[in-house]
Amino acid sequence: MRVIINEDATRVAIEAANLIINLIKRKPNCVLGLATGSTPIELYRLLVDAFSNGEISFSSVSTFNLDEYYDMTPGHHQSYRYFMDQHLFSKVDIKPENTFLPECSGKQSAEEVAKQYEMEIKRRGGIDLQLLGIGENGHIGFNEPGSSLASRTRLKTLTPNTLEANSRLFEDGEFQPTLAMTMGVGTIMDAKQVLILATGTNKSEAIGNMLLGSITSACPASILQMHPHVTAVIDRDASIDIENSDYFELSESNRRKL
Ligand code: F6R
Fold first, then answer.
1. Gap between the Cα atoms of 188 and 140, Å rounded
2. What is the atom index within ligand 1 of the atom nearest the CA of 65?
3. Fold of 2-257
4. Fewer Cβ neighbours under 10 Å: the N or C end of the chain?
């Protein structure tokens, strides 16, 4: 796994944005897997800047988000569709029909929505680059600890830890969904390339386990050790639990010299 340790969250966003900008330049009709949450917000701002400067266009790009809360009314301000519109989709030239989230109303069959989602990813040629954040408990997407490492898109129950971590985004007394549709670990592993971001000391244990822990569903991100093309871009705070972080820094510095 390529590990890039940056001084701070701003550098993490710049590094990650450059990887995505280069991919879009190389393959204008690429398929991006996207994440929500606090971590990628600055990265999305930089992608919007790159679009505004005329550096890249999203006109042929397709996107598939990792997850969406179950049974959200369309346009709900807590939905991940709303988040993506606010931070990226409404600010670039992406075609709305090329943006996908695993949206499922309570009236639909979650199995059917999940099956269609997987089929649409395949129909578009698979995900070229999957962007990920990581939960404090090592989740990727909403694949909580205990998720099958071969899982596909499905409905999941969020853990108390995830609900607590995300409660900061909800007003006091506001309904917080406890179920979400998420790509499976297997779906994520099918992406041609994975870019995982982490910032802050609260992510350091999960990052340590992801990189050098056993491959176990107790830390779903640990399965990324089996993926041939993963780049982890993290800040120094998120690196403190990596046993041999010096080695990763040396390795990255050599890579840049060669
Ligand atoms: C978001 C997602 C989650 C987040 C993770 C980190 O679509 O699938 O796995 O990436 O919970 O969230 P933040 O970035 O808010 O710390």
1. 9
2. 7
3. Rossmann fold (3.40.50)
4. C
pLDDT digits (tens, 9 = 90+) for 29-66: 999 999 999 999 999 999 999 999 999 999 999 999 99
Phi, psi of 243 (to 5 degrees): -55, -50
Residue 103: active-site member: no
Ligand 1 centre and the CA of 171: distance in Å?
Answer: 19
- What are 157-198's pLDDT values in tens digits? 999 999 999 999 999 999 899 999 999 999 999 999 999 999
Query: From the candidates 71, 103, 144, 190, which is the catalytic residue?
Result: 144
Q: Rounded CA gap, 103 and 67, in Å?
A: 8
Pocket around ligand 1 at a 6 A CB cut-off: 35-39, 66-67, 133-135, 139-142
User: Domain map of the chain by residue range?
Assistant: 2-257
Respond yes or no: is residue 171 known to be catalytic: no
Which pTM was predicted? 0.97
Exposure of 203 in the CB half-sphere (CA atoms within 13 A): 25
Question: Are the C-beta atoms of residues 199 and 238 closer than 8 Å to each other?
Answer: yes
Rounded (10°) angle between helices 9-26 and 41-52: 50
Contact 168, 203 (CB under 8 A): no
Going by alpha carbons, the residue nearest to atom 11 of ligand 1 is 135
The closest of 139, 124, 136 to 67, measured between CA atoms, is 139
